[in-house]
Write a sequence for this structure.
């Protein structure tokens, strides 16, 4: 495939900054499903994901898993755990083989003081996450599942979309279960909603990646509201 113009990660470190990060950290390799840390474990490190994907989640009092974030390469995590209590409050589990840089918390303050440029990028990342979390809560309260799915794909497009053929390819592969966890529904419902979007011609699946056939039409679909999502196809939306 000829993929071009990737939007990159939220926290993009140049080679000099990354080398500085590495000088304070140690590299760890994790297998799929292995935990970087678990809730109630003692806090030890601040982390930067180099390769792979890490899921951050909590478990409710009823035993339900609530996904807070999926970390992709270039993203830092462990940020919310730098508060005064000395135990983790969430789980960080690898969705695939992952390489993670870990800075001991005892060195983190010194590192930040000596690296204000990286500190600003981390603050930027936190701000984006807070906005996405707020948008997700609002969407779950006001939107149906298909609308939430469309808005998630739009967010993924902003982060991972690359120009391909006449449309946009989302250059990250997520399972239906992972998508369901991100929009607060079940896997079967995601499968059904994706099937409807594919049948209507808005998206295709190419090598396990989402392909948005017409970005402009898809953006209009995301803005059109729940009432239009149930019946309009691409041709009908264009004609409206």
């Amino acid at each position: 495939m000829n993929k071009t113009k990737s939007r990159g990660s939220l926290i993009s470190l140049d080679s000099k900054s990354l080398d500085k990060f590495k000088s304070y950290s140690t590299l760890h390799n994790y297998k799929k499903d292995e935990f970087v840390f678990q809730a109630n474990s003692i806090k030890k490190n601040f982390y930067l994901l180099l390769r792979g994907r890490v899921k951050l989640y909590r478990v409710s009092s009823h035993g339900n898993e609530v996904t807070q974030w999926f970390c992709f390469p270039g993203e830092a995590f462990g940020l919310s755990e730098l508060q005064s209590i000395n135990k983790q409050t969430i789980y960080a589990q690898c969705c695939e083989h992952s390489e993670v840089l870990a800075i001991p918390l005892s060195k983190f303050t010194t590192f930040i003081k000596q690296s204000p440029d990286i500190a600003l990028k981390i603050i930027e990342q936190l701000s984006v996450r807070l906005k996405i979390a707020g948008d997700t809560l609002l969407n779950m309260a006001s939107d149906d599942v298909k609308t939430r799915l469309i808005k998630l794909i739009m967010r993924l497009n902003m982060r991972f979309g690359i120009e391909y053929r006449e449309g946009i390819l989302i250059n990250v592969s997520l399972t239906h279960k992972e998508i369901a966890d991100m929009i607060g529904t079940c896997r079967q419902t995601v499968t059904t909603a994706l099937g409807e979007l594919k049948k209507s011609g808005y998206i295709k699946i190419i090598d396990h990646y989402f392909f948005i056939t017409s970005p402009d039409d898809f953006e209009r679909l995301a803005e059109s509201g729940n009432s239009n999502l149930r019946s309009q196809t691409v041709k009908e939306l264009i004609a409206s």
Summary: The CA atoms of residues 170 and 226 lie 23 Å apart. The chain has a mean pLDDT of 80. The chain has nine helices and twelve strands.
